[in-house]
Design a protein that fits this description.
The chain is mostly helical. The protein has helices at about 1-25, 50-70, 80-85, 105-115; strands at about 40, 135-140. It has one domain (about 30-140). About 45% of the residues lie in helices and about 5% in strands. It has a two-stranded antiparallel ribbon with strand order 1-2. It is globular and about 70 Å long.
Length: about 140
């Protein structure tokens, strides 16, 4: 009986190693991040410098979520819908990707790469609103 348990654990371990080594060749491609549709203002492309947003956006969103939900402070400074309106782009058919399937959604592309769950869209929409803000500056092409 003990030998069967050991063989079972060894075969499970071997199966796991074969699965991981078959999937991972040591090279992971960086996610393709869609460009923003507009600049935040004439002076800056996003609400904060891009390197800061890439590192700290989760903390910013959690902080402002706490202010909104617990303290009743509502501002548009770090509005999630503004992020979605600017960053989520439609495909060639005019359909918006869903954050829950595939990797074409702006948020999903990095979160899949980093193996991080997205819980924002349990309550919020992951598609842009029709009434997109017209006071934002157009994005300058490279």
């Amino acid at each position: 009986m003990k030998i069967l348990m050991i063989l079972g654990k060894l075969s499970l371990g071997l199966l796991l190693i074969m699965t991981v080594s078959g999937v991972s060749s040591g090279e992971v491609s960086m996610p393709e991040i869609p460009k923003a549709k507009n600049n935040f203002s004439a002076e800056q492309s996003c609400v904060e410098p891009i390197d800061l947003m890439r590192r700290e956006h989760g903390l910013l969103l959690k902080h402002y979520r706490h202010d909104t939900m617990r303290r009743g402070i509502r501002t548009s400074e770090y509005s999630l819908i503004a992020c979605v309106n600017c960053h989520v782009t439609a495909d060639e058919s005019g359909n918006y990707p869903t954050v829950h399937h595939g990797s074409d959604h702006f948020c999903r592309s990095c979160h899949t790469y980093a193996a991080v769950n997205i819980d924002c869209f349990q309550c919020h929409t992951s598609k842009p609103q029709e009434s997109f803000s017209s006071d934002m500056e157009p994005v300058q092409s490279d």
